[in-house]
């Protein structure tokens, strides 16, 4: 069975989006969390791209991920910087903790990996349960602007030791009714012209409409929902090609 964020894809993520690399999201999230002194949770924390800068600013952040490979890299990145956050393996829709958080953050559209509608709704309910009254959920999504089924794209990365990793991605399935796209990726690692490792990936991605997502948050119980375009707080989206961020508050 194909899955995502195994060894090679996690290595590529760390190369492509190193610690502190920002799309404007790190600065945005830092500002939106400035009033929070208590615990924060980052589901799908990945290799620590956002987690580590927030920890270094003094925020108290726990993180989890479905991928043990991503968490291994995240722990290594934290260790290099003298950090020891609470990191654990879990799923967004089913994690269960005694702790409650003042904020839960999901940058960079990672929430959209929950491509099945019911699982994504379960995850939002789960976030709500794990927030204190008045706690914030801050979450990024991306709009789907074009789907080119069968399109093949390739990318290449060079590792520190000189190895080369290539990725060939193909869009293989789209479900317009249930609003998701499936792509397949083939990772290959080359050393001195010899193929030394390969990995196949099935990468799902869901999409939502802006008002659809707002209504979903309201139905779950969130209030004071603010929609922002491209990390400009309160600017209602006009450009469909940039991130859309929702900030919502659990009812007190």
TrEMBL record:
GO BP annotations, alphabetical order: methylation
Methyltransferase domain mapped to chain residues: 40-135
Pfam families (alphabetical): Methyltransf_25
CDD domains recorded: AdoMet_MTases (cd02440)
Keywords: Methyltransferase, Transferase
GO molecular function per UniProt: methyltransferase activity
Protein name per UniProt: SAM-dependent methyltransferase
Species the sequence originates in: Heyndrickxia oleronia
